[in-house]
Every structure is written in C-alpha cells, then in structure tokens.
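Spend some time on this chain, tokens included, and walk me through the fold:

. . .
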Amino acid sequence: MLSIKIYILTKGEDDPDLCTAEKLIRRGLAYRITRLTEIPQCSIVLNPYAKTYTKFSDRDYIVRCGLTAIDVSWKGSTNVLKSLKHGMQRVLPLLIAANPINYGKPFKLSTAEAIAAALYITNFKDLAAKILSQFKWGYHFIELNRERLELYSRVNTDEEMEKIQLELFGINQEYLKGKNRLINLLHNIISPDIENNNGEDE
C-alpha cells in the first residue's frame, strides 16, 4: 500500500507499452481513476491551466488526500481542464523534460515527470526518485532540473515562484507587460501544444 496516494485519471487511450502513466499503474505506484468525480476533493491536481503553482505548502494536502495527474488525450479537453473543479488545482513551475520524445523542451513533461516534480517540490524526494527509477531516463530528469527543483521546493507563495522562474530562465519582466503574471503567459504558450502533451516513452 502506498503511504502517499497517487491517482492518475486515464482512459487508457495511449499505447500501454509507451505510456509512463500505465507503467506506474502496472507497478502499483499509482491508482487508476476514470472519472473526474473520483478525484478526492482535497487532492492536489496537476492541471496546466491552474491559476496557482505547486508549492511546498501543498504537502499537507498530498498527505491527506494524495496527488492526482491527468493523463488523457488533450484534444477537445482544453475547456474541461480550464473549468476543472474537482480537487485543488495546481500548475507546475517551469521545468525541462528529460523523456526521449521531448528531451530538452520546457512544459513537455511526461506524466511520470510531472508527478515526480510535484513530489520533489513538496519534499517527497525519495518517492519522486522511486517514480523516476521506473524509466531508464528517469534519474536524468532530476539532474537536468535539480537547481530549479531545489529552489522551487523552498517557495511559499506564487509571487516568489514567479520571481524565481523569471531569474532562472532569464525572462525580462518587461516581456510580461499586458500579461500581468508569468503564469498567464504559460497558459498562452501551453494552449497551442496541449494536444501533443503526452510526451510518453519508456
């Protein structure tokens, strides 16, 4: 039995031999759910359209109600994600993918990488490592993002998270004019690519 419950909302739409979510479920590291109503109300839900970041303070929610990832075809799902009310919606701060399909790209995390990132940020580092150990490229995700993850794990507010990301990625504050917050810019960047967000690979 997992001490921290990890839920993955999935319809089984991807090739089970290539999908990181399916691999975690098969190995008993995550529970499959198939309906939005199955998401525990105080679970942290990783949603690219959330209006607040995953932060260390979410740790208590994860202990009580678990962590939920959404692994479904994004085609036609944008409106659902934007209006999702089940659970506590969170977006991950900027990280770089290590999965072979989207290596080196920001935002393009596999489901396993997203789960591991949220766990690392909330100081479940051993469980994050266990999740990633199921994939031959998994440990490299931590190495590629270690400085970012360590800094993100010390943040308590969205304002701090935005400031750290601007510094880490050299984003000029002037670039955000008219968008107010970096998180709004991320939503705009994610939208065109969200149909191809399943960067899954062994």
Remarks:
- Residues 194-199 have pLDDT under 50 and may be disordered.
- The chain is about 40% helix and 10% strand.
- Residues 116 and 130 are 9 Å apart (CA to CA).
